[in-house]
From TrEMBL:
Name listed for the protein in its UniProt record: 40S ribosomal protein S26
Keyword terms: Ribonucleoprotein, Ribosomal protein
Transmembrane segments: none
The keyword rRNA-binding is assigned to this record: no
InterPro entries named in the record: Ribosomal_eS26, Ribosomal_eS26_sf
Organism: Oryza nivara (Indian wild rice)
Length: 140
């Protein structure tokens, strides 16, 4: 009868005729306080990916004559923070204090769109691009 010692386990043979390799260890937890938790994982970055099934060049060529809307491809993508999301520039590296900030980043808006005189600016640009003699600026 085997009492479970290391010598008895080394004497056992498996079905293929080779011995089991038994390695002894010094500590029950391997020096780590992670019972049942494995290795640490990052919080995933979730994004919805919406793309056209048909490529843009084909849409410009053939879809003008179609009367129905072309289908799209919808996929939810999970990115690992440590490699995929940072390397693909989906998220950026932030400091400890800035990581607590959950506000969305401000999008770039040119000063042209913030101007109150947007129709006049657009008309002037059109007048420069399309110099037609009959075209006149109308005062609102």
């Amino acid at each position: 009868m085997h009492d479970g010692s290391v010598k008895d386990i080394l004497d056992l043979w498996d079905d293929q005729g080779s011995k089991f390799n038994v390695v002894t260890w010094k500590r029950r937890n391997g020096g780590r306080n992670k019972h049942g938790r494995g290795r640490g994982h990052d919080k995933a970055i979730n994004r919805f990916l919406v793309r056209n099934i048909v490529e843009q060049a084909a849409v410009l060529r053939y879809a003008r004559g179609l009367c129905h809307v072309l289908p799209k491809l919808y996929a939810k993508v999970h990115h690992c923070v440590s490699w995929n999301a940072i390397h693909a520039h989906i998220v950026s590296v932030r400091s400890c204090e800035n990581r607590r900030n959950c506000e969305l980043p401000q999008h770039f808006r040119p000063s042209l769109l913030l101007d109150d005189h947007l129709p006049e600016v657009v008309l002037r640009l059109l007048h420069q691009l399309l110099p037609v003699p009959e075209f006149q600026l109308c005062a609102p």
